[in-house]
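We modelled the chain as a single entity of 471 amino acids. Its sequence is:
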Amino acid sequence: MTEALVLHEDRLFPTDPGMRGIARRLYAEVKDLPIISPHGHTNPQWFAEDLPFPDPATLLIIPDHYIFRMLFSQGVPLEDLGIPRRDGGAVETDARKIWRCFAERYHLFRGTPTRMWLDHALRFVFGVEKRLTEETADRIFDHIQECLNKPEFRPRALFDRFNVEVLATTESPLDDLRHHAKIRDGDWNARIVSAFRPDPVVDPDFEGFAGNVAALGGMTGEDTASWSGYLAALAARRQAFKALGCTSTDHGHPTATTCDLDRAACEGLLAKALAGKCTAEEAERFRGQMLTEMARMSLEDGLVMQIHPGSFRNHNRRIFESFGRDMGADIPTRTEFVHALKPMLDRFGNEPDLTVILFMIDESSQSRELAPLAGHYPCLRLGPPWWFFDSPEGMLRFRRNVTETAGFYNTVGFNDDTRAFLSIPARHDVARRVDCAYLAELVADHRLEEDEARELAIDLSYHLVKQAYKL
């Protein structure tokens, strides 16, 4: 017998009846608030062109590295999942076969956040009533396909249905932003903006770095082989992003290292980087200097700065060589913040007009380093749990680790940081439920009054993210 697809109304709430009742009341205040999604990786072309999503596999599986990394770990080649190869080599193109491959292994996701997000999308977006299994795979595929053929399942209609107030995508300085311009110039009343991600032109280890910097010069008319021209070109692209509504930058460096070098040292490092002659230590210093330069520019142009350090990106060399970046092989590393951030903080840490949001995937740093830093420096805020810790347990640990030292108001609410469009409402729902569960515990322990918890629940779901990201 095929089991029903059930998402219990009290999921993620405390099991204690008293606390569960408090969590229910708090959640009722926030569950229907608009979604603010200030940083993510959805494709702006979807919204610019508003074409139907072609099929369930292309929508739900191929863009979601949370899904295909798990399947790959169990021996499923990425080619079998339709993931495009860098060399244009053959991959599976039959969407139904990809979907069946996924459905046959859906049990692998038991107990994971991915399972919660997917079940949420299946039940509440598509109205699926039976659990996804090998036996139900074809029927559910056909049902979703039928939905996707309807106008109400096009990208813009879903955006409106999900009650998204603001959505930020993420683009390189080399992106021409034409899709964002098309959205802005059209007659659709939606706010979709970009975030400025300069990694391809500030990281000497990024593939094609010298060519990327030359292209940056071509876009801006600046001599990017000179230090002053290079910085001017970056500033110009920031302004172009800002003109289209961008309010933030994002930096995915291997570490949180920052530097404050003199001009001669900066010029020398840039020359070495462009020549491909940087040592590993020199590349790290260059990245560190560029974080400080980006903080200086943020103080000048008002863009909020996000730092996502601590991920050993593209750890699987064969997958990187065959499929490129962001294929689910990013692995957390030990990350030090106190000494790493000091050069930048010595210059800008006391600036109340600068906002630097720190993300972490080394949980040991939360209470030891990050909460004390954010609990002191006016410019610092703590981003929500990210990547592997964007999960109920990760969110609860984060609140327990940082609240006593940094409080709630040195954090920035939630952001979903996803490529999987249909998971956005699911992820925000999980975050709201977990925050309500934590606040219910504080009320039950008499550390908060319920009226304060209600105000906090609304702030954590809505107000803090708008304030932090200037939205």
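As a brief sanity check on the tokenised model: The CA atoms of residues 286 and 345 lie 17 Å apart. The chain has two domains: 17-51+155-468, 53-153.
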